[in-house]
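Pilot study result, target chain (93 residues):
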Amino acid sequence: MIKIIENDIIQNGTKIGYIKGDDIYNTNGDKIGSYLGNDIFDYNRNKIGYIQGNYIKYDNGNKSISLQKAKLHISGETVPDICRAAIRLLFGN
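Predicted structure:
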């Protein structure tokens, strides 16, 4: 399970990254991705996923994860669904 506390991304009690604006960073300070509107991008701004209805679509739309399932795995403060979806895809959890 991942928890978002303020801007920190915590997994099993360990900080694995943080959120700054619409960007997501690992603990080394490297930008690993971002989100804009309903789209999710990797660090090179390549689109790697998006939200469509109640699903997070990725792998060119061939795979999907229930947005509700992502919400169960990523808890925390008031974070937009697209941010949770980006964390799910970027950290692979």
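One observation from the pilot: The first helix runs from residue 67 to 73. A full batch analysis is planned for the follow-on phase.
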